[in-house]
# Entry
Amino acid sequence: MPTTPYQHLADAFGSAIVAVLGPDFAGSDPVIRVSTKPEFGDYQCNASMGLAKQTGRKPRELAAELIEVVDVADIAEQLEVAGPGFINITLKTSTIATALESMDTPALGVKPNEHPEIVVIDMCGVNVAKQMHVGHLRSTIIGDAFARILTRLGDDVHRENHLGDWGLPVALVLHLLRTRGVDLTTLTLGDLDAAYRDAQALAKADQKGLTAAISKQSGPHRIAELEDQNTGAADIRSEAGQTLVALQQGDEDLVRDWNSLISVTTDAMSEALNLLGVQMTKSNNRGESFYRDRLRGVLDWFESQGLCRKDDGAVVVDFDDRERPLLIQKSDGGFLYATTDLAAVRVRTEETGAGRCIYVVDSRQRDHFKDVFDAATLAGWCKNPSGKHVVLSHTGFGSVLGPDRRPLKTRSGENATLASLLKEAISRGRAEVHSRAEDPNAPTHGLSQVELDAIGQAVGIGAVKYADLANDLVRDYVFDLDRMVAFEGDTGPYLQYAHARIRSVVRRAESFNPDAAFLIEQPAERGLSLTMLRWNDVVHAAAESLEPHRIAAYLREVAEDFNGFYQTCPVLKAPTPELRESRLRLADLAGRVLEDGLGLLGIDAPACM
RNA sequence: GCGGGUGUAGCUCAAUUGGAUAGAGCAUCGGUCUACGAAACCGAAGGUUGCAGGUUCGAAUCCUGCCACCCGCGCCA
# Structure
């Protein structure tokens, strides 16, 4: 029986509902849930209340009838009606053992999607000549977690880094560096970042934008930003515009210099990605420049389909359900990032053949992506070559804040770069691991400095990733290394520690019987087993909702259940050889679930720490 | 002004998407180690789920109106 208890129950109650209420109710949700308390059994069916309302019957009576006909005798003990009409379900112990047996495979019972598809994940989003900051951290590790989860279920995932490597901002930096006569071959990213800010400051003057912003009653931030800008910038922008044109036309010197900017930026990026253990390299780069020859085609298509209009010299796309239009061409003929995003949608659906595109970009860009997706739909670009409708979705996420609860940006301090934060996290992880290793009783005692450093890095990085992925993505959070790298409580290291303990006990057992019978006797054994049996359901739920924190919360449950089990059920010193083998196998399975789950979050699980 | 998000224990967050007595972790207090790994476990205390109404067997969750904070709102990306 390959299905999980949950699915078995869902199928059985689904059929029972049809048997009692008729074929109209085929496909209605049987509302099987994990019980909230042990005294309510293992699972519960909450369908009868809702169905009773629909059919004008009494919920408890309906529940009793469902119990009469439902076919779960082979897996469950006697069912009982409780409260307003809950059906409490307690599984047979033998069912649990059988189910554990069937999940004890390399896949750990996680079943692949029936219809795998190509998924493009737009993540990371580094800009040329700018330092990575914590915003990139979120996009990158969230995107990587999505990618790992979907890959686990069989999808063909393409991580794409929509590098900001084109357009006026890049031309401005390039122009500035060249007029200053800077040697581009010896630049650091720090130099580039400073030049970027200089260039922006020099070029930002937008009286027209300011009046528009005021008349449109834009937010105070935007207006203040525009007011800061001064005159005299028009010249610089015009010169940068010429630089851009020359670059576009393939001017050899310019192209060479442009490439060195990209190279400096992406070298630093690769270093950070490497530290993070994110499965992404320069080969995942598909920057804005990739789409530069397709922008005209975007505009032509919208014009030819009558989907846009001229407004004040610019070209805009209107939508039926809102006032706000989408600008796809400026009055000076230039294109905008919306144009690039539209070109990217077109490539991803029509050429890459994606069935799903996920944009992992902070939630301030929600409106932008809504507009882009709607425009792409109007354009008819939401179909892939096989004619299937492509799902475009934007997963926004909250800001990372500093201790002052203001967005933590490079602007607010030179040391807020991603690289520096990661180094700090790693050094804290290492310090803790090294200090533990000094204890002669510690399993890490006697390991080499190199080995301890590697473990410490996994701990430090794992702490940062866990802190980010363990809560709801929409929330802002304060980047507080003290809390993240704390080694008590709801942290990455707690999970890694639970995993390492398991590896340790299995290692010390010396003999391991992979075919040992599961003997589920103690409540702690039962609890741990039931939790582990939910793994398949949890992965699918996390994949469907794109909520990694579900996996994080689940892993915490596994770790807590294991720690409780380990406290009350002697493994190596179990009373009988059979029980010892059973508990070892249970522990090993728990360890593999933890490793698998941490892996889906991109967190390493050292065998010893 | 319009739109979006958030508001849950002193602090940081959950709540299987409308289910039973709202759960964890920090911090506080009290118990467990000459150790199958104490980075752990067990227990105590801590709540008018921003406020006020409404919907129903049942609401943190859905509807209405307020309040607070954050974000966005055509020629930047």
Remarks:
- The two ends of chain A are 38 Å apart (CA to CA).
- The mean pLDDT of chain A is 91.
- The CA atoms of residues 350 and 385 of chain A lie 6 Å apart.
- Chain A has 22 helices and 13 strands.
